[in-house]
């Protein structure tokens, strides 16, 4: 099973410029563990100190918010496209 993960421009400085990876993670926990291994500098931007998804990080699976698919327990399907979107504040 393979999924594709899109990493937005705002986070690419932590991935050495990599904008997309493929992996075989079964759920969000496994995906974040894979990303932690590949890109250690990205870890603090994905999870808080308790290991939970950061409050201002939105995760979409096939353009649908993962919160409406079951949250972190959602089981990825072959071919899913995951998009990580950090909320950016400004004014």
Account of the protein in words:
By secondary structure, the protein is α+β, with helices and mostly antiparallel strands. The protein has a single domain (3-86), classed as Ubiquitin-like (UB roll). It contains two helices and five strands, in the order ββααβββ. Strands 2-1-5-3-4 form a five-stranded mixed beta sheet, with no helix packed on it. The radius of gyration is 12 Å and the shape is globular.
Proportion of β residues?
Answer: 15-25%
State the helicity in percent bands.
Answer: 10-25%
Which CATH-level-2 architecture? Roll
The number of E-state strands comes to 5
State the fourth-level CATH superfamily. Answer: Beta-grasp domain
What value does the average pLDDT take? 92
Query: CATH top level?
Result: Alpha Beta
Task: Outline the low-pLDDT stretches.
Answer: none
User: Which fold name fills CATH's third level, the topology?
Assistant: Ubiquitin-like (UB roll)
Strand order of the largest sheet: 2-1-5-3-4
The number of helical segments is 2
Order of helices and strands: EEHHEEE
Shape: globular
Supply Rg.
12 Å
Distance between the termini: 42 Å
Count of discrete domains? 1
The profile of the biggest β sheet is: 5 strands, mixed
Write a concise synopsis of the structure shown.
The chain has 91 residues and is an alpha+beta fold.
